[in-house]
């Protein structure tokens, strides 16, 4: 993404009718507050798409808020809180595997390599016998839920592994 692209995105958001509401809600981090709750699921991808630097104070605050608020336990994250933002689908929502890998990427980009590596190892240990992941994991049982195998989950494990390896190599 070029500097001009970034300026265009910033201008687009500045002119957006919800800009004032979103700005007020996101003072502590992106996607917090009543309007932002619906946006949390993809917010960790902002630094990965070069929309905002991972080390930006609002993104650091966002990463911490997401890790705390959407924590499903054991390093897993929900993509949203089902009771606060029901999707209308029957059944329970599991932890969304890709969101956990996005958290690893954010931690890595923020220089929190050891923390990211521990989380990465714990998530990789959850892979099935063939090394495959599902779309979701039941945090209470570890059972796979949703689509299996899930390409997005595998993209996450590969991208996070590459990002971690590069970050570790850069510190040597």
Please provide a written account of the structure.
It is built from seven helices and five strands, in the order H-H-H-H-E-E-E-H-H-E-E-H. By secondary structure, it is mainly alpha-helical. Helix 5 (97-109) runs antiparallel to helix 6 and helix 6 packs antiparallel against helix 7 (151-170). It has helices spanning 3-15, 19-25, 33-36, 57-69, 97-109, 113-124, 151-170, and strands spanning 71-73, 76-77, 95-96, 136-137, 144-145. The model is unreliable at 15-40 (pLDDT under 50). The strands form two sheets. The chain has a three-stranded antiparallel beta sheet. A two-stranded antiparallel sheet has the order 1-2. The radius of gyration is 17 Å and the shape is globular. A hairpin with a 6-residue loop joins strand 4 (136-137) and strand 5 (144-145).
């Amino acid at each position: 993404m070029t500097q001009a692209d970034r300026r265009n995105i910033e201008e687009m958001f500045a002119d957006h009718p919800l800009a004032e509401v979103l700005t007020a809600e996101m003072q502590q981090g992106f996607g917090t507050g009543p309007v932002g709750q619906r946006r949390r699921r993809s917010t960790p991808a902002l630094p990965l798409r070069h929309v905002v630097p991972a080390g930006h104070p609002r993104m650091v605050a966002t990463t911490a808020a997401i890790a705390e608020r959407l924590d499903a336990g054991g390093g897993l994250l929900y993509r949203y809180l089902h009771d606060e933002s029901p999707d209308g689908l029957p059944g329970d929502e599991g932890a969304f595997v890709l969101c956990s890998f996005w958290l690893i990427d954010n931690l890595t980009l923020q220089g929190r390599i050891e923390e990211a590596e521990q989380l990465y190892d714990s998530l990789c240990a959850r892979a099935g016998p063939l090394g495959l992941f599902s779309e979701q994991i039941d945090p209470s049982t570890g059972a796979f839920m949703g689509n299996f195998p899930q390409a997005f989950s595998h993209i996450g494990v590969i991208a996070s592994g590459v990002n971690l390896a590069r970050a570790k190599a850069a510190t040597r």
